[in-house]
Amino acid sequence: MPRTTPRAPGLDWTDPECPVARTLDLVGDRWSLLVVRDAMDGARSFTEFQRRTGIARNILTDRLRKLTAHGLLAQRTAPSGRRQEYVLTDAGHDLFAVVLALRQWGERHAFAPGEPRSTLVDRHGTPVPELAPAGADGTLLDAGTTRVHKPEKPE
């Protein structure tokens, strides 16, 4: 069963029929995916997100509110019981493949050969393999082997 993300009041979709555009409307700014990335890496508190990203407090406050309103993060009481923390929801966890694809694109195109960079590894310490989308028959997919099917518009 598909999960839905709540639509925030006043949100106008850039392209209402396009899943890419809707996703970018929700998380396509400079900071949102970095907050999600850090939540995937264990950040929970406002202070941790700010320290890891260097984001200004007012912008971080806005992004945490937005990500919570859209159902990507949830607030809960921290184990200490003294403050609130942010945790990924199922919808937030579902962005892992997006963050991984951006990371792998950056590894290929945003670093000079030999330039130091972080590495994503699995629980055994092995680097995560390249994403390779494949069709139902196992054929690798790319922009040249796929097309967008748009819904019929009522007349």
From TrEMBL:
- Tell whether Nucleotide-binding is among the UniProt keywords: no
InterPro entries recorded? ArsR-like_HTH, HTH_HxlR, WH-like_DNA-bd_sf, WH_DNA-bd_sf
Q: What is the lineage of its organism?
A: Bacteria, Bacillati, Actinomycetota, Actinomycetes, Kitasatosporales
What's an example of a GO molecular-function annotation for this chain? DNA binding
Has UniProt tagged this entry with the keyword Transcription regulation?
yes
Question: Which UniProt key words apply to this protein?
Answer: DNA-binding, Transcription, Transcription regulation
Which stretches of sequence are listed as region Disordered? 113-155
- This one is known as Transcriptional regulator
The highest taxon in the source lineage is Bacteria
Provide the species name.
Answer: Streptomyces mashuensis
Q: Which residues form the HTH hxlR-type domain?
A: 18-114
Pfam (any one): HxlR
